[in-house]
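Quick one, tokens below:
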């Protein structure tokens, strides 16, 4: 009898160890993605020696995602999902009852350690808090939908959340604080300068409020219902390419970085003229993509189909180009454009061709700079500046504010505050950045102190707003741009010039800037130029109602056909005049 009891006891222990040493069960691990912690849970099952699994990503509100293949052999677990481009390969350690290895997705390869969960994870047991769960909303950014998803959970009576921006390909973004009191909801992500404030209505299960970021205040309604992505119509974007398309790379030896772009050449190989496209301000890709529009793709497609070769490239630090965009000034970007011209001149198929630079917005400032520093055959200025940059910015601010029906008191306040800050920056060109930041912060606080309570409420977090403004105006690019005058360069340009602008351009106003360009070309003695103001076109050369940037994303047209025809006809004929 004693031996019988011992035998049964040993068998029971052995059975428990076998269960503990199986990979079947629920496993939880953490991925560290760009400073954010993302929970991953695998539910592994087995039947007749065949393994299967599903995956949860609770921070992203994703549950029971079926995996394509799950294998376990020689203590190695492999889980794959082709649609997600995901593969996890890990080793099971029975002594620790954990699984360690790599979580691979696309170009990422992240370490992961999975530990067995005592309780199966489900959406239902995430939390019983009234605002726990997934909240979906969409921002209207200049006519374009930007979806946001907040994943709220509660643990030990404390709320936490993460944020997704699916239209920007960003998931599991960490937030710093999530609070709920008297039905008031607030979520803050300090690193991104984001704050969401709203009121929870338990009856409708809706959070109604506002989204704050960088001085912008945008209405935001959050619901439990998932929001589908709206289809954006861009009828001018080409789907077929009836010409030669070549991916190229070239060096800016002075800057020590490489630039990547696309060179398009007419299919028959017959062309006499080549254009280098230079984008506007901010980090831009080779298509100058903005709000679903790709102006440089449409422009290059049209020109190449009509016999003009075109080179467009990613700004430094953008796309496939290397380098640091954040520290670059307009003059640094001019060096990149010069490197593009040098590259073209070094190609055997470009021998004897006429090469020009076509710049949009800030690119229209850069083109005359390039023309004074190296041989060019022509330049085209698309909404290019013709007046000093500080004057241009003040005009821009007032024009956009009026189009957006901002009250006169706010417009004048903004102009006066901007003038004071601009003067400080221009008069202290050599001041160290830290000292300049401190001085501007003092001045901004004085200006904000003049605001009414209602105006302060609209801004939201004043401290964050001051910090954002100070950082923006003390960037190397802004400090340089603010002191830039196009006159010294335009007044030396003697090659053929086309300058066009839209009557509804509120960013580079047509009358003042075209006048400045023409006056300076006359000083240069230039007699081969054409100046055109196109009725109804905005800064992106779209036919528009008001010209406000809020319209850019709502307009289907990417680049007006009249403007395209004008540019092509001028390029074809400037040397025949």
């Amino acid at each position: 009898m004693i031996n019988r009891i011992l035998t049964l006891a040993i068998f029971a222990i052995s059975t428990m160890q076998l269960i503990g040493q199986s990979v079947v069960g629920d496993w939880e691990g953490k991925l560290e993605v760009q400073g954010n912690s993302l929970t991953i849970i695998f539910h592994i099952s087995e039947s007749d020696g065949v393994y299967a699994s599903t995956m949860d990503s609770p921070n992203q509100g994703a549950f029971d995602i079926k995996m394509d293949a799950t294998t376990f052999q020689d203590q190695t677990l492999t889980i794959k999902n082709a649609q997600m481009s995901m593969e996890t390969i890990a080793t099971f350690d029975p002594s620790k009852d954990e699984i360690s290895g790599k979580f691979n997705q696309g170009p990422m390869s992240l370490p992961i350690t999975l530990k067995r969960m005592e309780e199966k994870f489900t959406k239902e047991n995430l939390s019983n808090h009234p605002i726990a769960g997934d909240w979906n909303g969409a921002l209207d950014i200049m006519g374009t939908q930007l979806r946001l998803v907040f994943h709220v959970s509660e643990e030990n009576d404390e709320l936490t959340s993460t944020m997704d921006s699916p239209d920007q390909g960003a998931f599991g973004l960490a937030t710093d604080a999530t609070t709920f009191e008297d039905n008031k909801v607030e979520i803050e992500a300090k690193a991104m300068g984001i704050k969401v404030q709203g009121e929870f209505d338990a009856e409708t299960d809706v959070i109604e409020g506002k989204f704050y970021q960088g001085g912008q205040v945008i209405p935001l309604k959050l619901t439990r219902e998932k929001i589908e992505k709206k289809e954006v119509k861009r009828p001018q974007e080409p789907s077929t390419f009836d010409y030669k398309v070549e991916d190229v790379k070239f060096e800016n030896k002075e800057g020590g970085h490489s630039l990547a772009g696309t060179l398009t050449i007419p299919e028959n190989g017959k062309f006499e003229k080549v254009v280098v496209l230079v984008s506007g301000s901010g980090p831009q890709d080779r298509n100058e993509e903005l709000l679903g529009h790709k102006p440089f793709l449409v422009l290059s497609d049209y020109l190449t189909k009509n016999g003009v070769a075109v080179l467009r490239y990613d700004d430094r630090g953008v796309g496939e180009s290397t380098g640091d965009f954040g520290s670059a000034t307009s003059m640094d970007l001019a060096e990149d454009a010069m490197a593009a011209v040098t590259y073209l001149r070094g190609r055997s198929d470009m021998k004897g061709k006429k090469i020009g630079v076509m710049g949009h917005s800030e690119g229209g400032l850069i083109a005359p700079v390039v023309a004074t520093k190296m041989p060019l055959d022509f330049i085209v200025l698309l909404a290019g500046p013709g007046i000093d940059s500080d004057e241009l910015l003040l005009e821009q601010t007032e024009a956009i504010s009026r189009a957006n029906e901002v009250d006169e008191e706010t417009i004048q306040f903004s102009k006066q505050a901007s003038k004071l800050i601009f003067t400080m920056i221009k008069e202290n060109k050599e001041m160290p950045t830290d000292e300049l930041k401190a001085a501007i912060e003092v001045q901004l606080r004085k200006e904000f102190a003049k605001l009414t309570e209602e105006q302060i409420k609209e801004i939201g977090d004043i401290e964050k707003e001051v910090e954002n403004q100070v950082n923006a105006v003390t960037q190397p690019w802004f400090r340089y741009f603010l002191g830039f005058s196009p006159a010294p360069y335009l007044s030396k340009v003697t090659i053929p010039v086309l300058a066009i602008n839209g009557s509804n351009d509120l960013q580079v106003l047509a009358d003042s800037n075209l006048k400045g360009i023409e006056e300076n070309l006359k000083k240069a003695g230039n007699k081969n130029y054409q100046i055109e103001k196109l009725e109804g076109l905005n800064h992106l050369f779209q036919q528009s109602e008001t010209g406000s940037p809020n319209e850019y994303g709502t307009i289907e047209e990417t680049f007006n056909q009249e403007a395209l025809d004008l540019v092509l006809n001028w390029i074809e004929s400037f040397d025949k005049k």
